[in-house]
Amino acid sequence: MNSRFQKMVYGLAFAIMVGFVLRIGKPIFIPVISGIISVYVLSTAANSLGKVPVIGALIPVWLRHVIAFLVFILLVTLLVFLFAANIQQVVALAPRYQETLLGFVSEIAKMLGVDDEPSWGTIRNLVLSDIDLQKVVSTTVTSVSSLAGQVFVVFLYASFLMAERLHFSRKIVMASTSRDGAKRVMDMVEKINRRIGDYLTVKTLVNVLLGLISYACMWLIGVDFAGFFAVLIGVLNYIPYVGSMVGVAFPVLLTAAQFGSIEAILIVLISLTASQMFMGGVVEPRLLGRSMNLSPFVVLISLTVWYALWGIAGAILAVPMTSVVVIIFAAFATTRPLAILLSQTGQFAEDAKAARKSK
Questions:
Q1: How far is 335 from 329, CA to CA, in rounded Å?
Q2: Confidence of residue 271 (pLDDT cuts 50, 70, 90)
Q3: Cα dihedral sign, 80-38-56-285
Q4: Which of 107, 130, 160, 345 is the most exposed place for a label (fewest CB within 10 A)?
Q5: Which of 238, 249, 327, 215 is nearest to 284 (CA)?
Q6: Tens-place pLDDT, residues 272-287
């Protein structure tokens, strides 16, 4: 009993120590892990390029990776410029949106019978009229500059990791003390690569489709910056559960500021929510299935923990990193019970294969 309690205390102390290191090492770990995730996406894109009829067979492997990397740089750079340009336009149009929103709030207040001056006017002015636009502009410029710097570091890590990936298998064999040990490590790495690669590929495809559908809905209604919000919805959809709600909230708030109409707000809210429910409830489960094999409750807890450690970046990376932890736990007998508790079904691919062989 004392031995079990001692192990529990040591495990808790180790978890606290790891959490502390992850927290203080946030500026280092986020670009590195983002670079690793980028390599998964790039490798999948390069492999897909090789499957293109006629052209794919003519392009060597190294050239496919270079093409995928250059396209990746172009797309991310365009996203950064899109973010910067649209934020500046939103700030420029802020006074007009502010007036529209003030009028809309006044109409709602009159409908509810709470437009009693000066109390309502005072509250309204405190909430909406005292926005420091200069501060918003300076904060936006600083955020964009910081984002551009982080993107450059991710590009740098991804390029070196792609070059290092070619020699990774050989170095594992050389570092292992036995052939069985090397095979075990390679099997675990292969499972991680396959599961994370499949998840990111399918999730990216779903998010692109969701962004296109959301753009069509907002464009038909006439919402400003429909392209920017479509991209934002697609990016935030990487965050389980919460991301979809936050992604819808931004264009709905802009619709209120742009149109000042309950009808327009309801149309945008219903159309975007329906798109999210269709992609998240119908399309994504059919494409992803149970590839990640994570309990929904564990996903929610991991989302909370990683967000507390690393903010939005941690929330986006929560599912892939938790899946890696489960795969590593499942590879060792001492930690396998934890992997079973964290999984959705309690059964892993190797268990299913063993069961089929026994039959």
A1: 5
A2: very high
A3: negative
A4: 130
A5: 238
A6: 999 988 888 788 777 7
Is residue 141 one of the residues assigned to a domain? yes
Q: Scan for tokens 């396959």, then name that residue.
A: 194
Query: Per the structure block, which two tokens stand in for 193?
Result: 């690569």
Q: Would you say residue 344 lies in a domain?
A: no
- Helix ranges (H only) for the chain are 2-24, 26-50, 55-58, 61-92, 94-112, 119-124, 133-165, 168-175, 179-221, 226-236, 242-259, 262-278, 284-288, 296-310, 312-330, 336-342, 349-358
Q: How far apart are CA 308 and CA 315, in angstroms?
A: 9
Q: How far apart are CA 49 and CA 61, in angstroms?
A: 10
Tokens 């009808």 belong to 263
Residue-number span of the structural domain to which 158 is assigned: 1-94+131-162
Note the pTM of the prediction, 2 decimals. 0.75
Count other Cβ atoms within 10 Å, centred on residue 315: 25
Amino acid identity for residue 290 in this structure: R
Residue 38 within a domain = yes
- Give me the amino acid identity at 171: K
Q: How many structural domains compose the chain?
A: 1
What is the per-residue pLDDT across 31-61, written as a single tens digit (0 to 9) for each?
A: 888 888 888 778 877 777 777 776 767 788 7
